[in-house]
Amino acid sequence: PPKLSILNSCSPSQLEGLCSFLQLSTCPEPFLVRFCSWLLALSPDLSYTSAAILAEQLFLRRVLSLTQPPSRHLMAALTSFCSKYSHPFCRVLVAAVLQEPGEGAEQTKLICELVEECLEPHSVQLLLSQVLEVPLSEKLLPVLQAVLGRQEVLPPELLDLLVLTLCQQAPAFATSLSFAKLVTAVLTVYQSQVS
């Protein structure tokens, strides 16, 4: 709707207030899908800051509270939003999931699915750099595996950081089959760059 063009003229605090007034963080999921489709049609595109605020307001609480696989409506809304605003999405949501203590199995599966299906290459690189900034855990190994499954060309410095991290963390994962698969994947996908 034309009224949504107001999103482009709001300051960050006004946008947060508008999201709160519209109760976007708790709106029904079918409406969330429709709202995200409206965002895709918005012209001009949202600024990075506005998209980051909307990612937080629309999805953060829902994703962090997942205890079972996301509904098809939530998945459709996430995929839709990520298709256009994957960079701010990664900065806000992926960062929050990585910092959450505990297993976070559903959140990890969700990130893996988004990596495999809809993140753009530059966002996959951003996500990889975010993962490498936190201590590795069994929870994060599937995310790294999903990134490697994309077989993206990584900048040399990011590939070096990945290899260095795996080398440093190897003793802690001496009995981990997932870690062994991850190292094998790195050696397979990037064999020409890893000595």
Descriptive account of the structure:
It comes from Ploceus nigricollis. This is FANCE protein. The chain is mainly α. The chain has a domain of 118 residues: Serine Threonine Protein Phosphatase 5, Tetratricopeptide repeat. The chain contains nine helices and no strands. The termini are far apart. The model has no long low-confidence stretch (mean pLDDT 90).
Question: Brief overview, please?
Answer:
This is FANCE protein. This protein has 195 residues and is mainly alpha-helical. The protein is built from nine helices and no strands.
CATH topology of the domain at 2-119: Serine Threonine Protein Phosphatase 5, Tetratricopeptide repeat
Secondary-structure-based class equals: mainly alpha
Q: Compute the number of helices.
A: 9
Shape: elongated
Extract low-pLDDT stretches: none
Key phrases:
single chain, mainly alpha, Serine Threonine Protein Phosphatase 5, Tetratricopeptide repeat, 9 helices, elongated
Secondary-structure blueprint of this entry?
Elements lengths: L11 H11 L6 H13 L6 H17 L7 H28 L5 H13 L3 H13 L7 H9 L6 H14 L7 H13 L6
